[in-house]
């Protein structure tokens, strides 16, 4: 039993007397809520919910953008100016009013920090008065409104270098105590303009994936994230909550031969660069079987990055497990098993390559292991290897299993536009380049209304799918064991996966049954 789990249980035991009280809960939702760095200026909120800060816009019902802090919106006809009037009752957790100057401060700092929130097109932001702010763009960008839902507003008067671990919040919750990678204690922000939690205190503990079931059985937690392997386990006093999420598990397949990137790192793969290998895997694997084996059935097969519920997605679906068709495709391309070892060869190159799975995300690693077993039928050897995320994310030469998907098409542009090759660490890990796809993405970006943009995004996704730079496999569910009586209202949308974090998005609306 790991030290972190023992520490967590020890703390839970101390809290046990109050954990079941009506005004407190103790939960565990994976690693991200206790990792710190709750700083929107450095990217917190881009990949998952930010419960500490309010935003100009938010992803609302059915994943459609709606107003949060903003009460009025005006977009110029050329798509270069966005003006927002904000509510006048917003305050930070120290009681200081939130004004347009805080928004200007937040966005100027975020742009300067090169955050994961892409503000490249934001030319300037200025306060027209205390409660009106105007953004000017260098060119139209249909993704810009999504950025307004990622960047939480921080206080200009209380921002500092260590802000991420001690935020002065404008959202539903404020931090009372934080011990990195151990526990986070929260209280409702008394100045929050939205729904205030009935709980006086929430304690969030870090518990490793492999110890989560034991934690649930201990009876000292009110909600705990469990991986798919344990989702069907019965725990007295708790019920299973299984949420559909947007995250799609996919393996990037580098489309260029092995080489060296400008920064000196390895790039490309001599096996996956052959389109026949990529297409054979795409049509030949059995996704439903992979869901059963890797996710204990707690998920659905997936053939594309976008959930069917998203307006910009191409809604790609096709019959897989076409093993004989895949074999013929490989034979015709020159991949043959000439030495009888079950692995095909071509020009002296074995049809084998390594795929990494994130060591702290069991669903991802199990998916890679199941994929390796599935690919044997095609004469392709995949070597599954567990590795820390810091290593996995450097996937330009060694493919890895990603969890991709968001309400916006941001991930699609990040992974498919050729301008992103060799940029940052995770951009376009397949080194994919297709002028037709680039052109469609550019047209989507320049669109001044979301319907037009969605049509171009869909065409781009459909065109790129034929080249298979990513092998999409499944959409796992986020599974939680929840104490009976703890009521979690529905989100009315499909949240991002974020390794289980999304369940806290409406935590301010949770309550105990009377």
Explain this structure to me?
- The chain is of the alpha+beta class and about 525 residues long.
- About 25% of the residues lie in helices and about 25% in strands.
- It has twelve helices and 25 strands.
- It has helices spanning about 5-20, 100-110, 145-150, 210-215, 275-285, 285-295, 325-330, 360-375, 390, 410-415, 435-445, 450-465, and strands spanning about 25-30, 55-60, 65, 70-75, 80-85, 120-130, 130-135, 175-180, 185-190, 200-205, 225, 240-245, 250, 260, 265, 300, 345, 350, 350-360, 380-385, 400-405, 470-475, 480-485, 485, 510.
- The strands form eight sheets. The protein has a seven-stranded mixed sheet.
- The longest helix has 17 residues, at about 5-20.
- The protein is globular, with a radius of gyration of 24 Å.
- About 50% of the residues are buried.
- The model is unreliable at about 1-20 (pLDDT under 50).
Enumerate how many helices there are, as a single number: 12
Which descriptor suits the 3D outline?
A: globular
Strand order of the largest sheet: 8-9-10-1-11-23-12
The average pLDDT is: 91
Outline of this structure?
This protein is of the alpha+beta class. The protein is built from 12 helices and 25 strands.
């Amino acid at each position: 039993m790991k030290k972190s789990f023992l520490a967590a249980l020890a703390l839970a035991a101390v809290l046990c007397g109050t954990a079941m009280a009506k005004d407190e809960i103790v939960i565990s939702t994976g690693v991200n809520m206790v990792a710190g760095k709750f700083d929107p200026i450095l990217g917190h909120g881009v990949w998952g919910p930010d419960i500490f800060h309010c935003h100009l816009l938010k992803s609302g019902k059915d994943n459609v953008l709606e107003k949060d802090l903003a009460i009025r919106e005006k977009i110029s006809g050329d798509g270069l100016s966005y003006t927002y009037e904000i509510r006048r009752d917003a305050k930070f957790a120290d009681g200081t009013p939130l004004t347009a100057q805080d928004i200007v401060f937040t966005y100027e700092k975020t742009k300067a920090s090169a955050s994961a929130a892409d503000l490249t097109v934001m030319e300037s932001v200025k306060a027209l008065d205390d409660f009106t702010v105007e953004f000017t763009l260098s060119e139209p960008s249909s993704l810009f409104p999504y950025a307004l839902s990622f960047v939480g507003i921080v206080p200009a008067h209380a921002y500092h270098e260590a802000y991420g671990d001690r935020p002065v919040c404008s959202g539903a919750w404020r931090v009372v105590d934080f011990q990195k990678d151990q526990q986070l204690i929260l209280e409702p922000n008394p100045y929050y303009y939205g729904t205030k939690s009935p709980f006086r205190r929430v304690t969030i503990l870090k518990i490793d994936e492999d110890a989560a079931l034991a934690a649930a059985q201990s009876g000292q937690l009110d909600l705990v994230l469990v991986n798919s392997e344990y989702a069907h386990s019965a725990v007295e006093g708790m019920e299973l909550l299984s949420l559909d999420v947007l995250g799609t598990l996919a393996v990037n397949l580098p489309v260029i031969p092995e080489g060296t990137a400008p920064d000196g790192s390895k790039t490309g793969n001599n096996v996956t660069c052959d389109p026949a290998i990529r297409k054979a895997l795409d049509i030949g694997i059995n996704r439903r079987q992979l869901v059963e084996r890797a996710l204990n059935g707690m998920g659905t097969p997936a053939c594309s990055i976008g959930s069917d519920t998203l307006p910009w997605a191409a809604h790609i679906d096709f019959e897989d497990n076409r093993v004989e068709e895949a074999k013929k495709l490989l034979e015709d391309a020159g991949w043959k098993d000439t030495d009888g070892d079950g692995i095909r060869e071509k020009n002296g190159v074995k049809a084998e390559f390594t795929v990494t799975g994130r060591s702290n995300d069991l669903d991802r690693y199990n998916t890679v292991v199941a994929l390796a077993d599935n690919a044997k039928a095609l004469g392709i050897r995949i070597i599954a290897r567990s590795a820390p995320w810091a290593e996995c994310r450097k996937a330009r030469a060694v493919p890895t299993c990603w969890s991709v998907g968001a309400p916006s098409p941001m991930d699609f542009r990040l992974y498919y536009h050729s301008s992103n090759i060799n940029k940052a660490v995770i951009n376009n890990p397949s080194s994919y380049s297709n002028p037709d796809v680039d052109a469609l993405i550019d047209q989507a970006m320049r669109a001044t209304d979301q319907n037009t943009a969605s049509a171009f995004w869909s065409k781009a996704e459909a065109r790129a799918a034929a080249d298979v730079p990513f092998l999409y496999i499944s959409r796992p569910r986020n599974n939680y064991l929840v104490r009976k009586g703890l009521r979690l209202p529905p989100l009315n949308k499909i949240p991002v996966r974020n390794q289980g974090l999304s369940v806290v998005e409406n935590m301010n609306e949770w309550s105990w049954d009377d």
